């Protein structure tokens, strides 16, 4: 295993150009964390009309915000003391999403912004339970919410096609997330309340899949939030088992922070239930052999780890250690609207500070596509187009870069 390389590397104009032109796939981006800054303000203004900003803030009761000065500070914040601090900022974005048209707008903008970066495929995570179970929102059902999200994708792709023949439409699928922090659930038995809400998510997914079959845009369920001793992955083993029974892919956040015993706990459940992807996973270095043996794909989000202080410095970030060990890695943004870092920025960071080559970045993009839950026929067609474009750009993707014995053998969601 080589040592971590994080010295600055000068990225040439041509390399910047290649990063922009590289066809990309992204697996880890949260809808609530992707809202454009301007859109946050626009939604605050739309929800309360004929009032100044201070009055709007007071009426909306945005979490953790009591006046205009606090709103402006939170609105512009990109660095956080820890994940808990970040979650407070994310709560503001959750609060401004209240109507179906709000969700349509933020999805439309996210997908359009993806097309500008030459992202061809993305899986977007969102927390359905936070919106459907909130009485301040005008979301009456899961079906209504999904229709709003799907409408946003359609509007964006229509706009992309009409704007330029050079731009590519973006294939989008959704993953429904759940907050693992039991303290965030009301009632005498917070743990059971959490499990009950997750069971409802699974039922929503199954119903959506059964009603729409291959046309459903939902491809899996996730588990997010701040990791702690009482909410490691094994605490949700019954939920993981139920998801497997329903044939719904389960993609947990794990190893986002350093937590004693977490890697071993996670890998045990991953192995038992044949989970093939882990959100983040940067602090899974203690079980690298298991990651390799199980062909686990990590959804690395470098800027997120740094800006939430999960990784205290770029020198201590484990990306290069995992990469050099041969772990299957993808590069992602996590919450681009809050961190103000898009996927092109993340690729440039990976080249500049972790010295990944353009071929390495192409490999990470292709790994993301191969690890995706896109329907198999569409995935294979998109992979062929990626390889063709890599060749045109002079980027070599060979079996030496992605060895045949480590090609992903991941069941595609039906």
TrEMBL record:
Record-level Gene Ontology MF annotations: adenosine deaminase activity; metal ion binding
Enzyme class label: hydrolase
Its EC number(s): 3.5.4.4
Cofactor(s) needed by this chain: Zn(2+)
GO biological process assignments: adenosine catabolic process; hypoxanthine salvage; inosine biosynthetic process
Domain Adenosine deaminase: start-end pairs: 23-382
Pfam families: A_deaminase
Entry keyword set: Hydrolase, Metal-binding, Zinc
GO terms for cellular component: cytosol
Key word Zinc present: yes
Highest rank taxon of the organism: Bacteria
Keyword Hydrolase in record: yes
Family under the similarity heading: Belongs to the metallo-dependent hydrolases superfamily. Adenosine and AMP deaminases family.
UniProt protein name: adenosine deaminase
């Amino acid at each position: 295993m080589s040592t971590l390389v994080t010295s600055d590397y000068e990225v040439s104009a041509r390399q910047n150009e290649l990063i922009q032109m590289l066809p990309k796939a992204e697996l880890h981006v949260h809808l609530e964390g992707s809202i454009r800054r301007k859109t946050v303000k626009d939604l605050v203004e739309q929800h309360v009309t004929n009032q100044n900003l201070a009055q709007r803030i007071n009426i909306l009761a945005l979490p953790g915000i009591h006046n205009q000065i606090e709103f402006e500070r939170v609105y512009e914040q990109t660095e956080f003391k820890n994940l808990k601090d970040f979650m407070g900022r994310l709560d503001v974005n959750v609060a401004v999403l209240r109507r179906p048209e709000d969700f349509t707008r933020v999805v439309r903008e996210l997908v359009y912004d993806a097309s500008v970066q030459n992202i061809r495929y993305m899986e977007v995570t969102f927390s359905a339970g936070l919106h459907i179970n909130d009485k301040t929102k005008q979301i009456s059902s899961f079906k209504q919410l999904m229709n709003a999200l799907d409408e946003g994708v359609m509007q964006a792709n229509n706009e992309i096609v009409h704007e330029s023949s050079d731009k590519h439409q973006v294939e989008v699928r959704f993953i429904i997330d759940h907050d693992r922090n039991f303290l965030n659930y009301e009632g005498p038995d917070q743990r059971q309340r959490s499990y009950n809400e997750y069971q409802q998510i699974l039922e929503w997914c199954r119903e959506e899949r059964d009603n729409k079959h291959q046309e459903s845009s939902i491809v899996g369920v996730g588990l997010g939030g701040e990791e702690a001793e009482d909410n490691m992955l094994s605490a949700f083993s019954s939920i993981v088992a139920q998801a497997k029974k329903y044939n719904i892919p389960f993609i947990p956040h794990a190893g986002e922070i350093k937590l004693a015993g977490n890697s071993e706990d996670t890998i045990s459940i991953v192995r038992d239930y044949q989970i093939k992807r882990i959100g983040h996973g940067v602090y899974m270095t203690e079980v690298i052999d298991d990651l390799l043996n199980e062909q686990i794909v990590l959804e690395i989000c470098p800027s997120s780890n740094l800006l939430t202080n999960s990784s205290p410095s770029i020198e201590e970030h484990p990306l290069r250690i995992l990469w050099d060990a041969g772990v299957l890695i993808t590069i992602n943004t996590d919450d681009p609207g809050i961190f103000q870092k898009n996927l092109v920025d993340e690729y440039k960071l990976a080249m500049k500070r972790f010295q990944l080559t353009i071929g390495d970045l192409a490999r990470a993009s292709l790994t993301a596509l191969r690890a995706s839950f896109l329907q198999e026929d569409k995935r294979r067609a998109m992979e062929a187009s990626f390889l063709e474009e890599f060749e045109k750009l002079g980027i070599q993707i060979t079996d030496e870069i992605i060895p045949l014995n480590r090609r992903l053998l991941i069941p595609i969601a039906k």
